[in-house]
Amino acid sequence: MIDINFGSLFTIELLHSYYKDQLCPDFSISPSNQTARTLGGHQIIARQYFNQLITEVNSTGKVSPPKPFTAIETGAQFTFFMQLNNPVFFNYTNLSSAAPNKIYYFTNRNNNISNGKTFLSGKIAAYSAANTYAPGDLASNDTGTIYRAIGSSKPGNIFNLTNANHWVAVDKNQYLSETDALQWMPSISVYQLGSPQPSVNISVLGYNSITTTYTQSVFSKTIAFANPASLFTLDLSFLQPGKYSLTVNGTQQWIYINDELNDSKTFAVIDIFHDTAPVSCSLLDGSGALLSPAPHYCIYFLNRATIWKYILASKQSGNINDTANLYHFANPASIITSLTPIPLSNKALNLKLTLNNHDYSPIACADPQRLVTITKGTDTYPCSEIFLNF
User: Fold this and answer.
1) Taking the model in full, what pTM does it have?
2) What range does the domain containing 382 cover?
3) CA-based radius of gyration for the chain
């Protein structure tokens, strides 16, 4: 009789602050073709359960601590694709809309540990007075608290994180942002130059496992053209699928190479590595045994904040107030707007409408199905219009 004992290898959890339970049900997660073969060869099962991807490996369960029957080598890579199933997702998520060939890239090599969680997104950068911020942008302070911009700021101004007219604190979770976006490129592509050039200098940097940075030169070449050219064929087919830094004639960009994405509409790629460093990449202990508890990785989406515009059918002036006193409105009016953006959520706020000396509560909250834009001062915001039959 053969004993089969499966132990937990790692778990990936999708969270979203739009949902009242924070659990994000909007994606399907599947392994790449190469990873499917790797999983099979190592007797690893990967299954999605609602908002989690759970992996378990056949192990020596009666030996303490248990080890995988098939050793997982240092440098092992497990790649998964995230397919978006909800067409309204971008309406209630603090991200810009999908762009051609743009994907989000998540990996435990980011070593992003905060608030008791290990995040697969990159770290939110600290606030800098030298940067330009638009409504919706994120920044962190020196204690790790994440702030959302509710007003624009430019280099040299005084609109730092303490300015409540320009920033609002969120929490200490690490949310994905546009800094996690990469340009997907096929391994052989036609590269467009801005103008005809006599030659191109190409440099590609990959991940350096010693420095844990993208500083490892994997390709460098100069191509001279017979005549100035505005495009050329870029052949990177010798590279392993993954993230790279590509520089062409001094212009750098982050790219992702994987020809499995040729015919898919992939929202994001997740790369889980078993490396000796950083600590977030350790799937096993120094003896090759399973960790207890097993690594639990998070991808956290932040809900979009919009200006809420209430339109009263009676065209009479009314007042809307938040009983929790968190959000405020331009009262009284027949078209009442919030003074600041309000995060969208499927957990309703307790708002009260006062009209003709009568109180109506609760009233409808913003629906992510409908978004327009509104200009307040010099900033343009997404706007949620809510029609009230009063």
Assistant:
1) 0.95
2) 305-388
3) 25
